[in-house]
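Structure tokens please, single chain.
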Amino acid sequence: MVIAGMIFLSMAFDAKPAFSQKISVKNDTLPTALLLIDIQDFYFPGGKLPLENPEKASEKAASVLRIFRDQKLPVIHIQHYGGSPIHSNVSPLPGEKVVTKQEANAFDRTDLLEYLKGLHVKRLILCGMQTHMCLEAATRAAYDYGFICVVVQDACATRALKWGDRTVSAEDVHASTLATLDRFYAKVVNASDLQP
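Here you go.
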């Protein structure tokens, strides 16, 4: 019994992470849209709330954005209300939808759900800032609305958090958030796993 339990635990912890499989973003039976969440100047150096490595995450997001633009697939930019521009690495093009929100959840009091339904979207590729806040909130809400969700983990960024007298590193905040989303609410992948 103990050996069987140890084998099970070993299998669980040795399982390949979800972000190791190629995903085609263009799929006629699974209409897909990209949500770029809050990739805004205030999260970059010199902004009001700089995150850890936002430049690198935005560059990965830009690589995903290029795939969607090349394939002429829907792109939705989520912008948190307050005047901070969307970062130049992922600036919206004319015709790309921009949803302005006031809450962490991009679906809350916005037209995002109706817009996606109008496009008959079934799958969402999500990335952005902050991993543990608006990215997570949008992913959970999207799942609850019935969308298949894919989170691009290296196109997301967050920051260290304090809890009591403890400081949780940005790396641990990022990892723990993805661990709660992966396989329950979303498939977690790397930008390099996405292809046309």
